[in-house]
């Protein structure tokens, strides 16, 4: 009875596992994307900020004296504080010149804080333990939009001497969380506007048409028009619209749209990684794949004189053995396919490694049989 029970238990587990696998591997219908995930309102965008500053408090890991701009920056800073110093007399081993970068988010108000990234500009070996002194961050128009200051956080450490040193992660770049305070905001006023534009993050004519149709269907009127592959013109409803422009944009952002894109195959020659979209197609093509392995072995033949011989010497003669192993090259016909699964199964018939697959895909594309864009990174 115990044996019968164990068999029944194993059968039950097999059935449950098979049902689980079938449920996991069952095809899932792709869901539509929200407009806020594939498009943004024209003008609502972040801006890049950059600044030049000094990091102080380093433990002898700062710039060398050959970094003239660092010593000059220190002298200029001290002169502004009322202290007169000659730049050539300043030692900078505890100070490093850095570039500070940050991103000013849209609708950022004065007083808000943003993260800043600090990167060494000179020959400093580590920014660990350093503090950035107040540095203005400017936009592309030259105006100051933020001021950054604070202790630098590094994701790692560096310890030891030059002969025995242990370093983890990058030590010449770090982040100051909430280290930048917004001083000026980019003017952007949406109130009272009658026309708005949506910009697609990945321009596509089909997606633009689908987006305009979905918006018009949601509002039951023609409020959207596809201008081109990357722009949708929006007409804000009459002033009696309950929620105004903000409510109008919020309602549009939640609409689901069937997005489309160009079919692409991305290959990485360095790692042998191949990523293909679901709509990859190949025309009928024949692929021949084979490997040649050459092995060279060196052996030594030793010739010794007879025992108790008065004359003679031991002679060592090298003997090289060369062998060539050529695998049978198979000519495999890959039929025309319409799904990614069929393409993968057809290519697996050749029995290639991922790196070989990269070369095969390039050859298929060159032959005009790959109906997709091939991008090599």
Describe this structure in words.
The protein is of the alpha+beta class. It has 3 domains: 47-157 and 166-182, no CATH class; 195-257; 265-294 and 325-376, no CATH class. Helix content is 23%, strand content 36%. The protein is built from 7 helices and 23 strands. The chain has helices at 2-25, 35-38, 68-80, 205-219, 244-253, 340-348, 354-366; strands at residues 33-34, 39-41, 47-56, 95-104, 113-120, 131-138, 144-151, 157-160, 165-168, 173-182, 195-200, 224-228, 231-235, 256-257, 264-268, 273-276, 281-282, 285-289, 292-303, 315-326, 330-334, 370-371, 373-376. The strands form 8 sheets. Strands 3-4-5-10-7-6 form a 6-stranded antiparallel beta barrel. The chain has a 4-stranded antiparallel beta sheet with strand order 2-11-13-12. A 3-stranded mixed beta sheet has the order 16-15-23, covered by helices on one side. A hairpin with a 4-residue loop joins strand 15 (264-268) and strand 16 (273-276). The longest helix is centred in the first third of the chain and has 24 residues, at 2-25. It is flat. It starts with a helix and ends with a strand. Residues 4-30 and 292-296 have low confidence and may be disordered.
Q: How are the elements arranged and paired?
A:
Elements: H1 2-25, E1 33-34, H2 35-38, E2 39-41, E3 47-56, H3 68-80, E4 95-104, E5 113-120, E6 131-138, E7 144-151, E8 157-160, E9 165-168, E10 173-182, E11 195-200, H4 205-219, E12 224-228, E13 231-235, H5 244-253, E14 256-257, E15 264-268, E16 273-276, E17 281-282, E18 285-289, E19 292-303, E20 315-326, E21 330-334, H6 340-348, H7 354-366, E22 370-371, E23 373-376
Parallel strand pairs: 15-23
Antiparallel strand pairs: 1-14, 2-11, 3-4, 3-6, 4-5, 5-10, 6-7, 7-10, 8-9, 11-13, 12-13, 15-16, 17-22, 18-21, 19-20
